Amino acid sequence: MLVQPYLIRFAVGTAALAAMALLVGFDPAIAGDKKPDAKQKTAKAVPAVPAKVQQSKEKVAVVKPSTEGKQLGYLELANLIDKAIDTRLQAEKVIPSERADDSEFLRRVYLDIVGHIPTAEQAAAFIDNKDANKRAKLVEELLASPDYGRHMADMWKSLLLPRNSDNRALQTDPMTKWLEEGFNSDKPWNKIVHEVLTATGEQDKDGAVTYYVANATVDKITDNVTKVFLGVQLQCAQCHNHPFTDWKQTEYWGMAAFFMKVQSTPPQMAARNGSSPEVKETNQPRRGRNGLPDSAKQVPPKFLGGDEPKVKASDPLRPVVADWITSAKNPYFAKAMVNRIWAQFMGRGLVNPVDDMQDGNPPSHPELLADLAEQFANGNNFDVKYVIKAICNSQAYQRSSKPNSQNADAAGELYARMAIKVLTPEQFFDSLRVAVSNGKAPLDPPTVTGPRGLKFSPRTQFVQFFEAEDGSDPTDYQNGIPQALRLMNSPQLNNGQAAQVMIRGKSKEQAVEQLFLTAVSRRPKVKELEMVDKLMKKEDAPKVYADLLWALLNSSEFTLNH
Amino acid sequence: MNAHQPLFGLSRRDFVKLSATGVAGVSLSGWMNVLASRAAEAGTKHKSCILLWMDGGPSQKDTFDMKPGTKNAGDFNPIKTAVPGIEISENFPKFAELTKEATIIRSMSTAEGAHGRARYYMHTGYKEGIGGLVYPSLGALASAEIGDPQNPVPNFVSIGARSFGSGFLGPKYQPLVVNDAAKGVENLKPLVGDTEFENRLDLLKEMEDAFYHDFQAGSSHAHQTTYDRAVTLMKSKEAKAFDLSLEKAETRDAYGKTKFGDGCLLARRLVETGVSFVEVNLGQWDTHQNNFEKVKELSGIVDPAMSALTKDLKQHGLLDSTLVIWMGEFGRTPAINTRAPKPGRDHFPRAWTSILIGGGIKSGQVIGATDKEGAAVTDKPVSALDFMASVCQLLGISYTKQNNAPNGRPIRIVDKGATPIKELF
Prior knowledge:
Chain A is mainly alpha-helical. Helix content of chain A is 49%, strand content 3%. By secondary structure, chain B is α/β, with parallel strands linked by helices. The interface between A and B is large, with 79 and 69 residues.
């Protein structure tokens, strides 16, 4: 009982770490013919790795999707998901947790699809609804909401636009809006990515050019394209042959070669001139100020792990690489995306971490990943909502997060119970806003003009205050003392008024119920009513309700997506 | 460790005690008692670091590497200091008396001339984005390597700016950011009365216990731990370190009664309670225009603060165990630009100056030299890595030690190629 929580957390977070360590410390042969260098020796002291990972030391054969050539509906795909998950559970003799109750499912699916919790009324309506199909219908309803696109845009903006010192003057709203529209209008994923990769012109006219403005040098864009769209961590290969995988330096620069002719206005310059940053692809590769690092190699453009396309020196190169990346035949593209979608909902990727797809980091369910990719790319025209519907209608997704007597220590990759994710700062802000205003306030607060005339949004300021590091695990809790202090003691979150408004005109039982439904989308348990009664003996009712709301909003139950 | 311990560990009596002693009313003697008992417990000398971060890149030719009589010497004259042979700008009269405690490094030479990347580089010793990792700031490293984990105050405190975070070392070593030293840590006091706050904590504890019992989530435990630390800080004696009103008015005056001066005073108080690393920010050094007026103004802020800090640390017996660093991300051009009506100097990483004070260094000296105009280093070039390695060594951190990044890659505290500056030891 004592050590359990650590095992659960570490099983999820360090499977990949252990895999990497295995490569470095236990078998130099993995790195091909490269001589093990001094660094590898020091990594020997690492946790033991499960036997399953050791088997994958050989080159993994490409797994053929069992549904190749077929077109599955989302319910059929959901069944396929469950078959794959259950098969492994049975093989490992792990009993999965029971189905999540309505409250658990409701709050989880709201957070995962639209990025915020339901109101008290929405929660009560769903829980009391007797329709046997209510869960499936809720998924459809949420996918049709504009908040879906908003939530996806928030996530993808963070992936595509790195937060670094060069980008401090960068306006990111145009990209967020562009992404939001794309997701909400059901634009197929391959089209979205192709448009981003070939975006040209001024940011005012095409928000997608922000991508190149934010990744302004050849190495930055190469790193991001390969990591985010192909799920491959190439950055190490920028300067030397990758120590853990087979990627050579020439592979890196072969991909980088496609972006050598891109020019973009630096954000600080555009801000100073009051103009909109512009992106274009010229006829000639830029020299000097293209920000080429010392490690740069001039090689002809070459697809990652693939051929050198025939191109004329004066042709634009981005459309060529965009065509290759977004093709249904691309070996990485569809897999990388379905893996990310899977991780968004299930708390960890089938390949984990999601941006590290390589032989030394195999998927937990290889056939499932292949089938998801096949149905996404070939069966259903890169329809993102299709994949989401399949996942959300599966039993695996609808499993409770509570462990049973047997599976508390089961490895996360078995999906014996739903992983517990931490609310992102955006989800947290939006959910607090929904809770405190009972859904009446619009999700985006009005912008405020700051001291230097800069407009900023309280939401942005909040998000920055709570922001975790880039690329952190969704199940990792990142808040520090300043965040905790702010949540406990800041005026906005100590709004006694909010509690009073919520419970106005209600009896004690109704009031307590309203507060629970508002914050954690469920009705209070008997023990919790007793707890409130006890407090009522010490304090006046208004104080009790304010205290209860405070405790609920500061609780793990509110902060976590379970 | 029993993860199921009672939350916060606070009894009603603890809370009554807290409100009785209150925030006001702890005299200096009270502090000395705290200090004495800690020293008795610890036995060994515990090192701390105060980084005075001069954001924007201070001009070395107008501060600590004067070139009188040369073409672009600028508006200021050098003055003698307590160490014969060492001269600094006339705008640092107070510090001139204290050069026996300092070592001035005039041969800093780094290649990074862009603010963002140079700041990152000088804080972490790594180039931004290399290898796809976020590297820990020096403060986070100090917190992790030499910080006392029992300290209720986080061991990395950043005053006046966010600094750089703990990167792959994780959230435990993130800085506690204090925007304004005069205001202290924000949200440290509950908005309701003590009794009601205790009732709230009781409610929260019951909910947390029940949630943990049902879900057994590591993240829930982390949440509780963070809240625990926050509440511990709220009720701790050490939190009073953040209350500058407990200092005598003369003391605050001596530091200059500026935001930066207050920050330096707060840094001294934090070091007294055992915090390993405090960073105090002073910006606006990026004097492409109006170099001389601005540098004079900023020098006027630094001089009393840095001097009072040095004297204060010495008086409290903390100077030997506290390393004070004065530096920015680079220096400024030997040449003066006349683009704007008020002349300025531009970025110059090739040859610039940093200062070390206390911390057990061999002091009262200058290390390195630049040529007549200050355009190049002529003696003992010091790279960013050399500098970081030296600081680590002075603080008792092994600069060759490796930490594991999330991708499994071992990362040295200071990258390969670093040589500590032997003249410091």
